[in-house]
Write a structure and sequence with these properties.
About 25% of the residues lie in helices and about 30% in strands. With about 70 residues, the protein is of the alpha+beta class. It has one domain. A 4-stranded antiparallel beta sheet has the order 1-2-3-4, with no helix packed on it.
Amino acid sequence: MPKVSPELLSILRCPVTGSALEQDGEELVSTAAADSGEKVRYAIQDGIPLLLPPELLAAAQSAAQPD
């Protein structure tokens, strides 16, 4: 499981809520709930947090796939 360094976690913020992030397994999770009432989760890929809001991440991933 890739670990995000404590130094990096101390400066990262959720782009949706502006709250701090905590690592939960292979994801970072916002410490505050979004407007939906749920905390926002971000994947960590190859040790790099993907801090795109979920709807933008889905759009980016589908655009990257060949037709």
